[in-house]
Amino acid sequence: MTTTSDQSVSDAVTAGAHATEIARSGASNLRGAAGGGADPARVSAVVGAALEGIRAAIRDHKVTYEEFDAFKQWLIAVSDTGEWPLFLDVYLEFEVEKVAAATQQGSIGTILGPFWLDGQAQLDSPATLPMRDDEPGTPMILAGQVIATDGTPLAGATVDIWHTDADGWYSGFASKPPAGNLRGVVRCDDQGRYEIHTRKPAPYTIPLDGPTGQMTQAAGWSPWRPAHIHLLVSAPGHRTLTSQLFFTGDPYLGNDVASADKPELTLDPQPTGNGDQVRSDRDFVLEPEA
């Protein structure tokens, strides 16, 4: 990822390979139970509509053979770099999330994205995320409570949290941060309360050295994501909430390449009086499983 402080780019092949491995294993499918076998009528309807949309674009814009061949080469490049999870999560997942949100209660969510990793440090609240001794960035506390839709505190709730460092790099998807950096699964107390000490993340671009970033730039679209914190909030007997939290004043709010930012998910961290440390409080409401 390109960042505000480091204009070098990540290794798209490395990041893509890791994201593809996670997607292939199904480990990132944390947003609901898997469906049954494929319904031929539904496959026909959805795939047919998608193909007709592409055919309509070809007709409406009079796509040439040169452009068609370039498109095929681009598809091959996306496959070769393993960037399908990145491309799909950036440009399509937000629409799937809208469909899911229409029938959900509790706190508002957003997309998962391609950079979640399983098997991270298990921590009790109050918790400090794993980080380097000289971890850059503004010290930050994120705290709150996990409750049910009826207001009951959810003992046993967990907050799975991950985000970039202050230079915009995700551990596990770039060589700069060590493994597990700024990632953890925090166990709330018996009142569903959590407190997480970390560093404020930075805005970043999607990888620009791969086909997804190259297509984005060729189209003249912004490749930037506002600074954000990823969260999976869960409790026994309740639907897992997939969310991200953003920050007031970020220059890329409203122009997120992944279309994932929402005003309801914006934090306004305030100084704690302890050096340059800031704090935000955010409660989460989980709905019962169906």
UniProtKB/TrEMBL annotation:
Regions of compositional bias (Basic and acidic residues) in chain numbering: 278-290
GO molecular function: dioxygenase activity
Keyword Oxidoreductase listed: yes
Region (Disordered): 258-290
InterPro entries linked: 1_2-CTD_multi_dom, Catechol_dOase_N, Intradiol_dOase_C, Intradiol_dOase_core, Intradiol_RC_Dioxygenase
PROSITE patterns in alphabetical order: INTRADIOL_DIOXYGENAS
Cofactor: Fe(3+)
Occurrences of domain Intradiol ring-cleavage dioxygenases (ranges): 142-170
Pfam families: Dioxygenase_C, Dioxygenase_N
Entry annotated with the keyword Protease: no
Transmembrane segments: none
Origin: domain of life: Bacteria
Keywords: Dioxygenase, Iron, Metal-binding, Oxidoreductase
Family membership: Belongs to the intradiol ring-cleavage dioxygenase family.
Protein's recorded name: Dioxygenase
Organism: Actinomycetospora chibensis
